[in-house]
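Deliverable D4.2, example record:
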Amino acid sequence: MVRVLLDATAIPVERGGVGRYVDALVEALVPLQDDRFELLVAARPADVHRFATAGADVLGAPRAIERRAVRLSWEQSGLPVLAARSKARVVHSPHYTLPLVSPARSVVTMHDATFFSDPELHLPVKARFFRSATRIAARRAGRVVVPSVATRDELTRFVGLDPAKVTVAPHGVDHELFRPPSSDEVERLRSRLGVGRYIAFLGTIEPRKNVAALVTGWVDAVLGNLDPPALVLAGAPGWDTELDAAVARVPASLRVVRPGYLPVEQLRALLGGAELVAYPSLGEGFGLPVLEAMACGAAVMTTKLLSLPEVGGDAVAYTGVSPTEIAATLAGLLADGAARQRLRTAAIERAGEFGWERCARQHIAAFLAAAR
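Output generated by the structure prediction step:
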């Protein structure tokens, strides 16, 4: 029996992509426990009930770790003690950093390598921190989990990560939560946001997501239309320094809505109710919003950079990253209802190939390999 302690303390209370990955992974791992594998979860106080409700055996962490610096310190001191007390043979760290000294073997998830390939897309201090953390984890971890072949290849290129100790475990999607919405759900969301037709973006507002270029391209694509769709930019605020200026240049005849972070229960209406979901990212380790939009039956436009073609396949429309290229792709899709419908149909079929149980089984294989 390999007892695994999954450290869920790194994820924020408001669930972005990494948070949804950990939540879904725990829920999928719990029923797969058998005579080979047992799961424990270390959780921040605010999340103890969430993981216990999922059926996990939960070990609560101190309340002080709500502060990031304290959590990082606790990861190096308190987490190894917790691992020793629980007799864990493997500690899974799901977000780059891991205990440097531990009584257990280490498995770490690395979500992308853009801190190396595109450091200018991150805050300098964050890029330096995660480059260092990635190099250390690549050396010390018994097994590294990545969500895509592109991420594995990038980490091999930038930090010399041995491909033989990497497990590629594509993310899944919760098909009960992310499914085509009902017309009532869409109407309630439109009423809440005060919009009619709209194009949606979902993700943290940061330079890597290329949102300012999306705003400019959308203006060029719809300006002069008799019924131009609004642009809804949903997601937690990040450190993007160009978006406010791009929005300020939007003509008064067009509408940008910025609702901020939306509860996950509202996302299927946002995504499935959109004319298009636009995600012109400059680089992703996986691209969970693209998969979630596809599962909701959305027509999706994204880029061919890094992992995104592994997710979208032939079921999405691809664009370049400049405002001019985005405008041309948006205009073409908005003018072609049949093409959007073909994308919606193909998206649901493609999304059906991704599930959290498969992802969880690949993690278990990584845990067992690390324990050996």
